[in-house]
Design goal:
234 residues, mainly alpha
Length: 234
C-alpha cells in the first residue's frame, strides 16, 4: 500500500469519526448546553456591569441632588448675612448668585445622571430577561438530556440485540435442523433394518434345527421298528 493510500485511509477514518461524533445526539446536546451556559455567564457578567453602572449613576445623581440643595442653602445664608449687616450687600449678592449658578450646574448633572441611570436600568431589565430565558432554556435542555441519555441507552441495547439477531442465518439454521432430522430418520431406518435381518437369521437357524430334530426323530423310530421286527431289543 502506498503512502498516499495510507494517508487517504487515515483521513477517511478521521472524517468518519468526526461525522459520527457530530451526529451523536448526546454529545451535540451536551455541547449545546455548554454553549448556552457560556452565553449565560457572559450575560450575567454584562448584567452585573450594567447594574453596577446604574447604581453608580444613581449615587452620583443623589450626590448632585444634595449639592444642589447645599448651594441653595448657602445662597440663602449669604443673603441673610447681608440683611443682618454681617456682609456687604453687593458682595453677598455676588456670592449668592455664584452659589445659585453652582446649584443649577448640580441640577443639570442631576438630570443627566438620572437619565443615564434610567437607561442603564432599562438595559439591566432587558439583560435580566435574557438571563432568565437562558436559565429556563438550559434547565429544559438539561432535563431533555436526562431523557435523551435514557432513550439512547435503550436504543443502543435494542440496536445491539437486533444486530446480533440479524447475523443469525435463519434459513441456514432451519436447513441444518432438517438435515439433522433426516440423519436421525436414516439411523432409525438402519437400526430397524438390522433388527429385521437379525430376526430373519434367527428364524432360519431355528427352522434348520427343528428340521434336523424332526428328521433324527423319524430315523430313530424306523430303526426301532426294524429291530422289533427282527426280534432284537431296541
Amino acid at each position: 500500500m502506498s503512502i498516499f493510500q495510507r494517508l487517504f485511509n487515515v483521513g477517511k477514518a478521521e472524517v468518519n469519526s468526526a461525522i459520527d461524533k457530530f451526529e451523536d445526539p448526546i454529545k451535540m446536546t451536551e455541547q449545546g448546553i455548554r454553549d448556552l451556559k457560556r452565553d449565560l455567564n457572559g450575560a450575567m457578567t454584562s448584567l452585573a456591569e450594567v447594574k453596577g453602572q446604574a447604581i453608580r449613576l444613581r449615587k452620583q445623581a443623589e450626590d448632585n441632588k444634595k449639592a444642589s440643595a447645599d448651594w441653595e442653602r448657602k445662597a440663602m445664608i449669604l443673603i441673610q448675612q447681608a440683611q443682618n449687616g454681617g456682609l456687604d450687600s453687593e458682595e453677598a449678592d455676588r456670592l449668592a448668585t455664584e452659589a445659585l449658578n453652582r446649584k443649577e450646574e448640580a441640577e443639570r448633572r442631576l438630570a443627566q445622571f438620572e437619565q443615564d441611570a434610567q437607561a442603564q436600568e432599562n438595559m439591566a431589565t432587558q439583560l435580566q430577561s435574557q438571563v432568565d430565558k437562558l436559565k429556563s432554556t438550559i434547565a429544559t435542555h438539561e432535563n431533555e438530556l436526562i431523557s435523551l441519555r435514557a432513550r439512547a441507552k435503550t436504543a443502543a441495547a435494542t440496536k445491539k440485540i437486533n444486530k446480533q439477531l440479524a447475523k443469525v442465518d435463519s434459513s441456514g439454521t432451519i436447513a441444518m435442523l432438517e438435515r439433522m432430522k433426516e440423519r436421525v430418520e436414516e439411523d432409525e431406518s438402519l437400526s430397524q433394518a438390522y433388527g429385521e435381518m437379525a430376526d430373519e437369521a434367527k428364524s432360519l437357524d431355528e427352522e434348520i434345527d427343528s428340521a434336523l430334530s424332526t428328521a433324527s426323530s423319524g430315523s430313530d423310530q424306523r430303526l426301532a421298528a426294524l429291530k422289533a421286527k427282527m426280534g432284537m431289543d431296541a
